[in-house]
Design a protein that fits this description.
Length: about 475
Amino acid sequence: MNLPPAGRTTEDLLAEVARLKEHDLPVRGGQVTAYVYDTGRAEVNDAATRAYLEMLEVNCLDPTAFPSVVEMERQVVGAVADLLGGGHGIFTSGGTESIMLAVKAARDQAGRDRPNLVLPVTAHPAFHKAAHYLGVEVVALPVDLSTYKVRADDVAAAIGPDTVLVVASAPSYPQGVIDPIEEVAAVASAAGVPFHVDACVGGWLLPWLREAGATVPPFDLSVPGVTSISCDLHKFGYAPKGASVLLFADPAMRRRAYFASAAWPGYTIINATVQSSRSAGPLGGAWATLQALGRQGYAELGRATLEATTRLRAGLAAIPGLRVLGEPESSLVAFAGDGVDVFVLADEARARGWFLQPQLSYAGIPANLHITVTGVTLAGVEAMLKVIAESAEAARERGPVVLPEGLVELVAGLDLDAVDDASFAELSASVGVDLRPGAGQPEMAMVNAVLDALPPASREDVLVRFLSVIYGS
């Protein structure tokens, strides 16, 4: 992109934004079952948008300069603490940042030379990212393949003298099940190790599902031994993206998440988050969303979400060749195929206007498709099931993806550091996955089948190259 010789009008710019978004997945209506969360209430979105814009240019870097930041954050964090058993919190940009700060606080408090954190294989990759950035080793544990939950006995056996943090999920994203929080908290507490509950998805969902009649076990800071918990408000809080809260049971632990530096002659540096300068727009949007919905609004959304999830699970069970994995205790549902290639099913559904999120096989868990049920899903759950049934039948007729002979071995054996982006793009195009500019949206079944056949380390290398090619120079 070159800068235009003169400034362009707002109308011209917005017209180009609309053109650029032409092939984006829709963010409203419930046909995209990942990445976006929709209340189906236009007035709530409008309130959040207006408050976001009002706070857009306010800088969270210095709360003494902008006291509105302090008051809004106190109210937002206080609402989350009230719902999740108390605690002392930080407003962050999302689950990854909340998780990174939780790992930093635990690492700094322990002061180990070779720190590690213990977690199930179903824990979100944000913990691996945090460990990578912060120099912490990950000890990953298998889950019970009938329940997809980590076993407390396995956690107890894995805790060692250098363990600085134990992690479990409420729920884990892949299958929507809640790890045995009370049991894991007990073994972590007995070992004197902090215990973080990743409730980024469930923190602002599970209490409302419980109120709607679902059976939800204790999972928050009210459980003895839970020392921190993360809760995203841009998921089931329905706030605009960039809104999460990290709560600590102990305010001293919260201070470990902070960063301060006085070793320079400039302005005072004290940060509660990874970012320094950051817009207060997401904070304003989150505050307004909570205020616009209130307890009644969230309770209504919880009831609708629970009903939609119940209908979805029953409907999936009635479609030949599909089976729900585990017993989801939230509104995240994953299903695998028997005689149906789920990656082909996903492409067929997308051709019909619906996005279902593919998940690769790992640690004994089969490849599957993931659906996040939100407040708007109930209105379209029967239409979704109809599309899934049609797509499953079409996938059965097409048959599974057939990979070119020797392709997986070729990709696994490549030294990708020796292959430039142009050559990688040509290799992808040769097997029907054309990522070059102007080629359009490729079907993803072949991509996912290749990734699924590769070991995890090779998957990661290939994904990095895909991203590099897509963005180009």
